[in-house]
Amino acid sequence: MNKKAYIASIAVSLLFATPAWAQTWTGPSQAAPGGNTPTPVNVGSTAQSKIGGLLLNTGGATNGLIVQYGNVGIGAVSPGYKLEISGNVGATAYFYTSDRRLKTDVKPLSGALSKILSLDGVSFSWKADGKPSVGLIAQDVEKIFPELVGTNAATGLKSVEYGNLVAPLIEAIKEQQKEIDSLKAEIQALKGR
After folding, report:
1. Does the pTM of the predicted model rise above 0.90?
2. Number of structural domains found in the chain
3. What digits encode the pLDDT tens for the residues 149-163?
4. Cβ(173)–Cβ(116) below 8 Å
5. CA within 20 to 30 Å of 163's CA: 50, 69, 135, 191, which one?
6. Is residue 95 part of a domain?
7. Assigned domain for 17 exists
8. Order of strands across the sheet that contains 71-74
């Protein structure tokens, strides 16, 4: 098993089974529970310290696994979500929980086309590595679809639930198709005169 796969498996295990001591320990000013040392731990040449929970770092300040206050981060120094990964994630599929039995107050989206037309797709380069990309600006999306934007409690940085933009995009296409069908009917009527 390679190093990244090993770290990911630990992260998933910790995400679903955070031990009570990781949630209740308040820091090195108290005796560490379970025989743990309150002093920094060295992994290789990188000194580590515990911050509110377990900090395990196997590759420098931004490359290791960090569990802080019940949140797990891989390459994220202060994870603000249950699982935060700084870098690429690969999978064969991502499934979003969507069962009708889990939802209340379900109603159709209205005005989807005008909302979608209000969004601006942009090209940009990431500051961290200069890598070019395309996407949306979270602050702009928040003005139109606030329910699709989250703010990381630890960093204040905003994120977009891109997958959930599918619903308004579907409704926008349906609105456009109604307009197209209406125009086609009007053209046929004019041709028939």
Report:
1. no
2. 2
3. 999 888 899 999 999
4. no
5. 69
6. no
7. yes
8. 55-56, 65-68, 71-74, 83-85
**Token pair recorded at residue 101:** 């039995």
Higher pLDDT, 12 or 177: 177
Last residue of a domain, one of 85, 119, 144: 85
Closest CA to 173 of 119, 113, 115, 114: 113
Range of the domain at 41: 3-85
Q: Binning pLDDT at 50, 70 and 90, where does residue 116 land?
A: very high
Alpha-carbon gap, residue 177 to 175, rounded angstroms: 5
- Is residue 19 included in any domain, yes or no? yes
The answer to the question of residue 90 being in a domain is no
The answer to whether residues 159 and 84 touch, using CB atoms and an 8 Å cutoff, is no
| Whole-angstrom distance, CA of residue 94 vs CA of residue 163 | 10
Angle at 59 between CA 25 and CA 24, to 5 degrees: 5
User: What is the Cα–Cα distance from 174 to 166, expressed in whole angstroms?
Assistant: 12
Calculate the alpha carbon distances from 75 to 57, 63, 86, 97, 179 in Å. 9, 4, 5, 26, 48
- Tokens 């395990």: give the residue: 56
Residues 46-59: b if buried by 16+ CB within 10 A, e if exposed:
eebebebbbbbbbe
Q: What are phi and psi of 26, to 5 degrees?
A: -100, -5
How far apart, in whole angstroms, are the C-alpha atoms of residue 18 and residue 163?
A: 28
